[in-house]
TrEMBL record:
It holds the Pfam family EF-hand_SWAP70_N. Phosphatidylinositol 3,4,5-trisphosphate-dependent guanine nucleotide exchange factor (GEF) which, independently of RAS, transduces signals from tyrosine kinase receptors to RAC. It also mediates signaling of membrane ruffling. Regulates the actin cytoskeleton as an effector or adapter protein in response to agonist stimulated phosphatidylinositol (3,4)-bisphosphate production and cell protrusion. It comes from the Eukaryota. Residues 283-504 form a coiled coil. It comes from Peucedramus taeniatus. This is Switch-associated protein 70. The gene is Swap70. It is found in: Cell membrane; Cell projection, Lamellipodium; Cytoplasm; Nucleus. The keyword Coiled coil applies. The keyword Hydrolase does not apply. The lineage of its organism: Eukaryota, Metazoa, Chordata, Craniata, Vertebrata. Its main location: membrane.
Length: 553
């Protein structure tokens, strides 16, 4: 059953014949002495292609081991959250068996969960916990890590739902490789309409769903090194637009505001840059860097310990040499005393021999003093080397202090990111409120649209009536024009008839004058009536009269 389930989850064809052949029945029981691990490696794990659901595989492994190892004491997290912590542990643990998670990775995980909850990180509290942990063991197992997070020691004041959401957010980032997610509008390729979708950005793909529960998937945008993203100007009533260009398609997307637009553009550009460079996702790269840093510090510490052991061994050797020299000096002094005693006893008989021995003893003593001086010089050099090592140790301490300061700076930046996350959450709530208002407005607009449609139908009917009236008026206008043409012809005939008569009358203007419209100048009254002459005509007549009068005289 175990082998069949593993093959199903890992998408490997199950071979029951190989299973029966490998586990042949014998006198010792149904399983042969070869054991299960060789069969697992040869017939299952070597055939894995990587095209399986890792979450389902982890869930199966969790089912096999959780019941036996999970603590029976009540925890502040659910079984699903405990499973996600277990998967995160497998990602962050060291690559050696039995698996443990070191204090540095525990601090990283707890900081990520605390930031996701929007709480402040208690560095002092973790330092006390780290000191107590280092004195007892090198790290925590998966079940100890679940007990630590489930005990609420580093999430005091937070409810179960907040802790669960924080664990889920960290799980999405570290395990599911979710780099960014959120609601945006997408323009369709066929109907060209805009629909709201939940977008999820991963290292090589952007998936979009109907909602954030990820149940109804609508499509994928495959990313590679040839993709690019460009900002677009506002058009068609849509704002905060940008364009994702791939080899076969382009996608127009509208963000909710300029900040979200810039964040998405930067995230997609960073993802494409990583694909071009062939680099892993940021969290995996950061984990590799932390691991390399730990290995480097461990190597430096081992080298320092090795040097200290060598110095200690050299010191012990020098101490042994000095002890040997001291014993030699004591033996020489004892021999000198003995010789002195013998010399006093045999002073008379061995005067000459004593002188020779005395000279010899002086020479020996001089050699011994030279050896002591040499050993003292070597001891001074040794002490100088010890002082140099102490200086190296101080420099190493300063480097550790610098690293601590860098971590504090990193914590400050993470707090700032947490505050920005809170602001983003508030804005998201406000956007959801606006979305509800927009839906209500759309419903009202539909009713108004129906009413306007009715009014349009009435106006079209009125327009048809007006068009019929306009046609009637056009006919009447044509008839009036025909009547006008007839009157105009009659007027022209009458004008021609009166023109000859007017010329005849012009010779007798003293008797008869046609009545014409008066001038706009002031009226003049003459014998022929008001406005019978203009001023110019009157002046001409006056000059004519004066000329006739002068001639008669």
């Amino acid at each position: 059953v175990l082998s069949h389930n593993l093959c199903t989850v890992l998408n490997v064809p199950h071979d029951p014949v190989a299973l029966e052949e490998h586990f042949r029945d014998d006198d010792e029981g149904p399983v042969s002495n070869q054991g299960y691990m060789p069969y697992l490696n040869k017939f299952i794990l070597e055939k894995v292609q990587g095209n399986f659901d890792k979450v389902e595989f982890n869930r199966m492994c969790w089912t096999l081991c959780a019941k036996k190892n999970l603590s029976k004491s009540p925890l502040l997290i659910s079984d699903e959250d405990a499973f996600k912590v277990w998967v995160i542990f497998n990602f962050l643990s060291e690559d050696k068996y039995p698996l443990i998670i070191v204090p540095e990775e525990i601090e990283y995980l707890l900081k990520k969960i605390t930031e996701a909850m929007g709480a402040g990180w208690q560095q002092e509290q973790f330092d006390h916990y780290k000191v107590a942990l280092n004195t007892s063991q090198e790290g925590l197992s998966a079940w100890e890590l679940i007990d630590l997070i489930g005990s609420g020691q580093f999430s005091k004041g937070m409810d179960r739902q907040t802790v669960s959401m924080a664990i889920n957010e960290v799980f999405n980032e570290l395990i599911l490789d979710v780099l960014k997610q959120g609601y945006m509008l997408k323009k369709g390729h066929k109907r060209k309409n805009w629909m709201e979708r939940w977008f999820v950005l991963k290292p090589n793909i952007i998936s979009y769903y109907v909602s954030e529960d990820l149940k109804d998937k609508k499509g994928d945008i495959i990313l590679d090194g040839n993709c690019c993203v460009e900002a677009l100007p506002d058009k068609d009533g849509k704002k905060c637009l940008f364009l994702i260009k791939c080899l076969d398609k382009t996608f127009e997307i509208s963000a909710s505001d300029k900040k979200k637009k810039q964040e998405w553009i930067q995230a997609i550009q960073s993802t494409v840059s990583l694909l071009r460079a062939g680099s892993p996702p940021p969290h995996k790269e950061a984990r590799q860097k932390r691991k390399e840093l730990r290995q480097k510090l461990l190597a430096e510490q081992e080298e320092l310990e090795r040097q200290m052991k060598e110095l200690q061994a050299a010191n012990e050797n020098k101490q042994k040499e000095l002890e040997t020299v001291r014993k030699q000096l004591e033996a020489a002094a004892a021999r000198a005393a003995e010789e002195e005693k013998k010399r006093l006893q045999t002073q008379v008989e061995l005067q000459d021999r004593f002188s020779l021995e005395l000279e010899r003893e002086k020479m020996v003593r001089q050699k011994m003093e030279e050896q002591v001086a040499q050993k003292s010089s070597e001891l001074e050099q040794y002490l100088q080397r010890v002082r140099e090592l102490e200086e190296m140790y101080k420099q190493l301490q300063e480097a550790l202090e610098d690293e601590k300061q860098a971590r504090q700076d990193e914590e400050t930046v993470r707090k700032l990111q947490a505050r920005l996350l809170e602001e983003e959450t508030a804005k998201r709530a406000e956007l959801e409120k606006w979305h509800l208002q927009q839906q209500q407005t759309i419903q009202m607009t539909e009713a108004e649209k129906q009413e306007l449609e009715n009014q349009r139908m009435m106006k079209e009917q009125a327009l048809q009536v007006a068009m019929e009236q306009l046609k009637q008026l056009e006919l009447e206008r044509k008839e009036a024009l025909e009547q006008y043409e007839e009157v105009k012809k009659k007027l022209e005939t009458a004008a021609n008839n009166t023109k000859s008569w007017k010329d005849k009358v012009a010779h007798h203007e003293g008797l008869i004058r046609l009545i014409e419209p008066g001038s706009k100048n002031p009226h003049l009254i003459t014998n022929w009536g008001p406005a019978a002459f203009t001023e110019a005509e009157l002046e001409q007549r006056q000059r004519s009269w004066k000329g006739k009068k002068a001639t008669s005289e």
